[in-house]
Input
Amino acid sequence: MKTVALHPDFGVEIQGITLLDIVCSDALHRQVRELFEEHSVVVLRGQDVSDDIQATFARGFGALEKTKVGSGGAGTFYSRMNNIGPDGAVVAPSDRAMLIARANQLWHTDSSFKKLPALASVLSARVIPEDGGGTEFVSTRAAWAALPEARRAELQDLEVMHSYATSRDQIDPAMMGADERAALPPVTWRLTWRNPVNARSSLYLASHAGGIAGMDEGRARALLRELMDFATAPQRRYVHTWQPGDVVMWDNRATMHRGQPWKGGQPRSIVRVTISADESDGIDSVRPRAAAPARAAELQSA
Ligand code: OGA
Ligand code: MN
Output
C-alpha cells in the first residue's frame, strides 16, 4: 500500500489495495481509518465497485444512513443520483434529477440538515460524462485553522441553523413540496465540529445553513456568506476528475464539496453510501449549548 497527497491542506490517494482487501483485514481497515481521520478525503482508484462492496466498506466506519424520501434509492442504503430516464435516455434539463444535480453543485456537506448528521460519504461514479462532471472538495478544518485566532474566538460559540429547504429553494422553490418540508424541519449545530481523534476543529457549514441562533437574518446570511467564501477560496480546492473505478470517501465533519456541471445531454450516474456520526465521532462537540444565542447577540451589537 502506498499513499499520495492530493492537496497541501488535505486529501490522500491510497494505491495498491482494493475495497475487498480493506473489508477483509482489520489491520488495513485501521490504517484507512487513520488516513481518513488525518486527511479528510480518501481516494481509491481502479476499483471493481458493486453496491455490496461499497456498502460493506462503508459499514466498517459506522452505521449507514437510509436514503430519504424524495431521493433516488429512498429507503435503501444507496443514494442513486443519475440523469438517465426509464427509457435509457438522458432526461430533460428541467427533470427533477437535473435539479438535484444542480443543488449538489452548491458547496455543502452531506446531511447537515438531518437530525443525525453524517460522519462520512463514500461515492462511486458509475457513468461519467466525457466533459465535466468532476467533484470539488475543500477542507473546512484548514479553513478554520487559517482564520485569525481573535476571529475564531469571536465565532466559536455561534450556532447555525441548517435546513434542506435553504439549499433547495436556491435552485427552485417548487423543488420541495409541503410534505417534504414538514418532514425536514431545521436543525441547529455549533459552527465548529471537533474531531476527538486529533482534537482539530473544523467549520461546519453548508448550502443548507441559513441562519444563526440569536442573530438577525441579514447579519447571519452575510456572515455565513463571508465564511463560505473564505472556506471555498480557489486555492483551497481539490478537484476530483472521475475515472471509471474511482471511489472517494470524505469526512462530512471537516470538508465541503460540490459537483461541477457537465455538457448537456451526457449521462452521469453516481452512487453514494453515507455513514451516520455518533459519539465516537465527536457529535457532542457540534450539539447546541444554552448560552449561544446570547453570545450571538453580543457579537451582533459589537
Ligand atoms: C454527493 C454530491 C457531487 C457530485 O454525492 O453527495 O454532492 O459531483 N455529489 O455529483
Ligand atoms: Mn453531497
The mean pLDDT is 96. The domain at 2-301 is CATH 3.60.130.10 (Double-stranded beta-helix). The longest strand covers residues 118-127.
